[in-house]
Amino acid sequence: MIRLRFRLPIAIITAIVPVLMAGATAHPAAAFGAPSGCPSGAVCFYHSGNGGDLCGIWYGNAPDLAACSNNGPSGSIYNNGQPCGGCQDVNLYWGSSYSGAWYCLPMGHYLLYIEQNFFDRGPGQPGYGQTLAYRPGQPNGPGGVVSALWTSC
Question: Using the 8-state DSSP alphabet, how is residue 21 labeled?
Fold first, then answer.
């Protein structure tokens, strides 16, 4: 009699679990892609998060990103560089002429919402720990990327 009591609930669970699992795995999450409009060999800066509103394209070092510096409150950056032996990655600097703290963006990588990333290199330098997006008056601010240097992370 004890066996019979457990068989029915186990049979029900055995029948329901595959149905529930099929529903959970039938729709995988969509993956984000790299921002569009950035040519091969360049680093590109966008005014908006998720690669919206292309601001500028740089193939060489940029001691001052001009109108593309201090993007915020959001923005995106895409390193679509080429292998070149020590110059395929991009250091993103808090200050002009490669000064202050920096963040190294490897070749082929992108930041879709730069307010979620921080200057994490150069402890003790101005800007260390601040957000890559320009957000005056906000925690971890004001932040903002002002210059970019091709290098190797």
Answer: H
